[in-house]
């Protein structure tokens, strides 16, 4: 059932929201698609939702229609604010729009747990936001789940398994403390204007505790070094970590001649623990 608000094409024409490339503006105008994303986020009725980059408000409307208790949306482009104000008026008390940069603004004072994050992310800040959400100072984080649209290539890196080219730091940081799934992909034509590449929605549900114990800083450091030189053997890429790195690798069952992309999450965590013991 569509809401009582005008179709998004009319909204875009009325407020002259010509897409700006530098803001990563590729809008979803089909309410069936935005509703599909909102439904993928799970039961929203008891949750506050944080949305980054509502733009003209297609996904925002779907989140509200799907019953989100309260949506807090951060938008950098002031041109979108009048369109979002119309949505605020149609759903009194259920939408809070914050104007600003999602990398700089703290939305937490406006949110009440449980909190889900749902967004069609601007490609230029998407990975940085995800990394921040995945690496808070304490775990569990302020959010329950992330339902995020990325370029398909980034989505594949998040859910990648060892042995694939896409497997790397993002896969490990995501899968260490979350269930990470690729929900569905969308072709460029689903967006206005169409981007150059396909997109995909990833669903990340936080685990209450990490899958395997490890110090977050040390794991992140080990993984960053290992994948920075992903074609090198680990004994070379991790040389700077500890003088006796070959011994440490062997001690946790990793051959020093192996490469980062062959090593699973559990082994990386064991390595991080062994490094922690030597420090
Ligand atoms: N949610 C809308 C949709 O699905 O049609 C728009 C998605 S569009 C891919 C990304 C949106 O993020 C744009 O509205 C853009 O203005 C906004 N944006 C870009 N950079 C931002 C930032 N640093 N902080 C907040 N919003 C940003």
From TrEMBL:
Sites where the protein binds S-adenosyl-L-methionine: 26, 28, 53, 75, 101, 120
Short name of any one Pfam family annotated for the protein: RrnaAD
Organism: Pontivivens ytuae
Gene designation per UniProt: rsmA
Assigned GO CC terms: cytosol
Annotated Ribosomal RNA adenine methylase transferase N-terminal domain residues: 33-208
Task performed by this protein: Specifically dimethylates two adjacent adenosines (A1518 and A1519) in the loop of a conserved hairpin near the 3'-end of 16S rRNA in the 30S particle. May play a critical role in biogenesis of 30S subunits.
Organism domain of life: Bacteria
Enzyme Commission designation: 2.1.1.182
Catalytic activity line of the entry: adenosine(1518)/adenosine(1519) in 16S rRNA + 4 S-adenosyl-L-methionine = N(6)-dimethyladenosine(1518)/N(6)-dimethyladenosine(1519) in 16S rRNA + 4 S-adenosyl-L-homocysteine + 4 H(+)
GO MF annotation: an example: RNA binding
Keywords in alphabetical order: Cytoplasm, Methyltransferase, RNA-binding, rRNA processing, S-adenosyl-L-methionine, Transferase
NCBIfam families given in the database record: ksgA
InterPro entries: KsgA/Erm, rRNA_Ade_diMease-like_C, rRNA_Ade_Mease_Trfase_CS, rRNA_Ade_methylase_Trfase_N, rRNA_adenine_dimethylase, SAM-dependent_MTases_sf
Major localization listed first in the record, in broad terms: cytoplasm
Protein name stated in the entry: Ribosomal RNA small subunit methyltransferase A
Localisation per UniProt entry: Cytoplasm
Annotated family: Belongs to the class I-like SAM-binding methyltransferase superfamily. rRNA adenine N(6)-methyltransferase family. RsmA subfamily.
